[in-house]
Amino acid sequence: MDNKEYIENLQRKEQALLERIEKMRKTMNETVELRTLGFMSELLEEAKKELEMVQEKLRSVGNEED
C-alpha cells in the first residue's frame, strides 16, 4: 500500500467514524432508558478516541509530505 492509498483509507475511516458518532448522538437524544444511555455513552467515547487516533495519523502523514 502506498502513501496515497494509506491516506485515502484513513480518510474513509474518518468519515465512517464521523457518521457513526452522529448516528449515536441522534439515537441517544431519542433514548430515555438510562441503561441504554450509559451503554451508548461508552460506545460514543470509544468512537471519539478512535476518531482522534485516525485524525492524528492524518495530520502526521500530512506533515511528512510538507
Mean pLDDT metric: 91
Q: Which structural class matches the secondary elements?
A: mainly alpha
Helix/strand order = HH
Strand composition percent: under 5%
Could you tell me the number of beta strands? Answer: 0
Largest sheet: none
How would you characterize the overall build of this protein?
- Helix 1 packs antiparallel against helix 2 (34-65).
- It is elongated and about 50 Å long.
- The protein has helices at residues 3-30, 34-65.
- The chain contains two helices and no strands.
- With 66 residues, it is mainly α.
- Helix content is 91%, strand content 0%.
Layout of strands and helices, then pairs:
Elements: H1 3-30, H2 34-65
Short description:
The chain is mainly α and 66 residues long. It is built from two helices and no strands.
List its traits:
single chain; mainly alpha; 91% helix; 66 residues
